[in-house]
Design goal:
Elements (H helix, E strand, L loop, with lengths): L2 E8 L3 H12 L4 E5 L14 E2 H6 L7 E4 L1 E5 L5 E4 L6 E4 L1 H15 L2 E4 L7 E3 L2 E4 L2 E8 L6 H5 L8 E9 L9 E5 L10 E5 L4 E8 L6 H12 L6 E10 L12 E3 L15 H21 L4 H8 L4 H11 L4 H7 L3 H12 L9 H10 L12
Parallel strand pairs: 1-2, 1-11, 2-8, 5-13, 11-17
Antiparallel strand pairs: 3-7, 4-7, 5-6, 9-10, 10-11, 12-15, 12-16, 13-14, 14-15
Helix pairs in contact: 1-3, 1-6
């Protein structure tokens, strides 16, 4: 029996679930298809959320932990502390957050179908047929190697970072105030390594520009020596591809459109894509609802105009892909120009308002109403 919907979404992660919730709240009949057995399975992301995403999309504080600074290490282990007043990152319980977002989309009225893999589809004059599911419009939010893009002849990602990450029991030796980032071309050529004091866990990972490979074993040896970590008890492992070539050349067709990682909406420099996934997932829902219900502008036309260009970041990505030697990183990282660049990359528009992390903490602690909130800094 044919099931009919206004909007079908392939992919049940940040972009797909944000789109599903917003579209359902706007009165569309929505279905989400995902090959995973449940929303929290096979997580492919570290789950670090920037403040802009936290401001724009209400997410539950109980599934997140604020981290207010970045400690950037050179290959020789010298460190640079970065922060900006009023700015923070959110480390997240990713499986828990995916379950919450799925519940919110279902509560808004979307139908979620897990364990259903997208195989193929047929676009016709008034919609798209996905086997026994027919919809007026299809959104592909199915990750870096989108099957929707391939099936409908849309743009595909061609340049990637390859990432590896382990999640382990909390490590007491790690300063929980910082995201710990490591610039090291031997361990992570073309990118960085990281250690994140997360939600009841510590995440350790790194990525490299393909076809080079990240050296997770080398990273763990370095961390054990530098932080005096004697025992790392791994609870989960994940790996995945991160698009690094910018937005794909063709975002959609008459009845199909890509968003999120499938569309290459990921920063070529930092690899950050959660904020854009949430933003453009919601935006896609608005555009489809306006188009189907009120003959508004075609969603692909509008999305193509609004999608990020990443011009400067694509240039910087080409330079990073060259894999500068560690000797050069050691010489350059602590200089004033590199500090300003790192400040801008991590803290965006607040990059010019930098101050030392310790100065920020001291000023915070001296505020009259600070004491009830000091636990946020530990």
């Amino acid at each position: 029996m044919v099931q009919r919907f206004d909007l079908a979404i392939v992919g049940g992660s940040f972009a797909g679930l944000a789109c599903a919730r917003s579209a359902a709240l706007r009165g569309l009949k929505v279905v989400v298809l995902d090959a995973k057995p449940d929303p929290g399975a096979r997580v492919r992301t570290t789950g670090i959320i920037v403040k802009e995403a936290s401001d724009e999309f209400d997410l539950p504080a109980g599934l997140m932990r604020k981290v207010r600074g970045v400690r950037l290490y050179a290959p020789d282990d010298r460190a640079l502390d970065l922060s900006a007043p009023g700015y923070f990152f959110q480390a997240t319980d990713m499986p828990g957050l995916m379950h919450w977002m799925a519940d919110e989309a279902a509560r808004a009225g979307a139908t979620l179908v897990y364990g259903k893999k997208f195989e193929s589809g047929l676009e016709y004059e008034r919609g798209v047929a996905l086997g026994d599911i027919h919809a007026g419009f299809l959104i592909g939010a199915d990750g870096a190697r989108s099957r929707v893009a391939e099936a409908f002849g849309l743009g595909v990602n061609r340049r990637f970072l390859a990432g590896l990450e382990i999640e382990c029991e909390p490590l007491a030796a790690v300063d929980g105030r910082f995201l710990h980032c490591f610039a090291d071309s031997k361990l992570a050529p073309g990118y960085i390594a990281w250690m994140v004091p997360g939600v009841n866990a510590t995440q350790i990972g790194l990525a490299a520009s393909r076809p080079q490979r990240p050296d997770l074993g080398g990273l763990l040896r370095r961390l054990k020596a530098h932080f005096d970590i004697r025992d790392i008890r791994v609870t989960s492992r994940r790996s995945g591809l991160i698009p690094s070539g910018g937005v794909v050349h063709c975002l959609g067709a008459r009845r199909v459109m890509l968003v999120g990682d499938a569309a290459g909406m990921v920063s070529p420099v930092t690899g950050g894509g959660i904020h854009t996934a949430l933003h453009f997932g919601r935006r896609a829902a608005m555009l489809v609802a306006d188009h189907l219900g009120d003959r508004g502008i075609h969603p692909v036309v509008a999305m193509t105009r609004e999608a990020p260009r990443y011009r400067a970041k694509l240039l910087l990505r080409r330079l990073m892909d060259l894999g500068p030697p560690n000797a050069l990183i050691n010489a350059a990282l602590m200089t004033a120009p590199m500090r300003r660049l790192a400040q801008r990359l991590y803290f965006h528009s607040r990059g010019e308002k930098s101050e030392s992390f310790e100065a920020w903490c001291k000023a915070f602690e001296q505020e009259p109403d600070a004491k009830p909130h000091l636990k946020l800094l530990t």
